[in-house]
Amino acid sequence: MSFTYLRQLPSPGAIKEEYPMTPGMKEIKKKRDSEISDIITGKSDKFLVVIGPCSADSEEPVIEYVHRLAKVQEKVRDRLVLVPRIYTNKPRTTGEGYKGIATQPDPEKAPDMIAGLIAVRNMHLRAIRETGLTAADEMLYPENWEYVSDLLSYVAIGARSVEDQQHRLTVSGFDVASGMKNPTSGDFSVMLNSVFAAQHPHHFTFRGYEVKTSGNPLTHVVLRGAVSKHGNTVQNYHYEDLIRLHEEYEKRELINPAAVIDSNHSNSGKKYEEQIRIVKEVLHNREISPQIRSLVKGFMIESYLLPGAQKIGDHEFGRSITDPCLGWKESEELIYYIANSV
After folding, report:
1. Which of these, 328, 312, 275, lies nearest to 57 by C-alpha position?
2. Are strands 177-181 and 219-223 parallel, antiparallel or unpaired?
């Protein structure tokens, strides 16, 4: 047969029981969730910054990064809500390569998904316990939601997943802010249809159960650029793109119109240093356009302790093994720039 069943994974309940949230940590998350919700719904004029490594491939440098971020959060807390990227699943365009710590706790060893689930929870728990910051993660596999549902304050659905029915329906049951990226084609209608689907209730099967959801009003769009039919990157963060998105939102029966701008990926052509210029351009357009100001609620920025990227096995502490990222110095300066501009 085509499938070889290796072993049964522990249930989400069993993993949560063995690696639990404390009452104090739950209170931290409740407060953070509320702050982010108020940004998305427009109740707060604070700005959201989802920032951190392309992939959270190693616990120690990730936790060091979150510690640094927490110190900055204290200084900008009246203007920004900083959400560390602790992305534990890595989508691969061809299916080849490192798939994230949830699959490979050690990038140089064979996959071990039970150890991966434990590594994911340990990293998120340490971040909350040691820094008071709850994180964002990409929900590459919808059935993994229950393993981290008590930990995350923000969820991203990637460009390759946003058209998938199971992702859309699953997000309708999330109780945290969830960003739907535009597909790699760049089609706004696909992205907005995903938002519509996730904002409404559904009835479907999930993890072996018949379930129903109430809809997620905090679902919004994330602009990450696109790829043309010729394989060229196409940006969608410019003034004209944001005005068009504002108009498209107004045509649809969607609540809480909101957009987060992904400054890397196809918007930067994966030229990580371009993220600084892109952020500054979007902030300028927020200043001159009331429509853009009301729509754009935050940024996604790829950043780590050291700039650029390295190959698996190079073992440079805090340098990405997937997409290249901004280094800490430039990232810290950029956060302060955002805080002074919103």
Report:
1. 312
2. parallel
Q: Enumerate residues 6+ apart whose C-beta is below 8 A from 66.
A: 52, 84, 86, 127, 130, 131, 133, 135
∠ CA(45), CA(48), CA(54), 5° rounding? 170
Rounded Cα–Cα distance for residues 222 and 192 (Å): 10
Tell me how far apart the alpha carbons of residues 214 and 199 are, in angstroms, rounded to a whole number. Answer: 8
**Measuring CA to CA, how many Å separate 70 from each of 51, 78, 336?**
12, 14, 13
User: Across the 342 residues of the chain, what is the mean pLDDT of every consecutive 10-residue run?
Assistant: 88 96 98 98 98 96 98 98 94 76 92 95 98 97 95 96 96 98 95 97 96 98 95 96 97 95 96 98 98 98 98 96 96 98 96
pLDDT for 96 equals: 72
CA–CA dist 264, 246 (Å, integer): 21
**Closest of 175, 183, 133, 135 to residue 157, by C-alpha:** 183
Please tell me whether residue 319 adopts helix, strand or coil conformation.
Answer: coil
**pTM score of the predicted model:** 0.96
Sheet-wide strand order for 219-223: 80-84, 47-52, 296-302, 259-262, 219-223, 177-181, 154-157, 136-138
Can you spell out the DSSP letters for 109-164? S---HHHHHHHHHHHHHHHHHHH----EEE-SSGGGHHHHTTT-SEEEE-TTTTT-
d(CA 65, CA 52): 8
d(CA 204, CA 187): 26
Comparing CA positions, the residue from 126, 104, 137 lying closest to residue 59 is: 126
Strands (E) across the chain are located at 47-52, 80-84, 136-138, 154-157, 177-181, 203-206, 209-212, 219-223, 226-227, 233-234, 259-262, 296-302
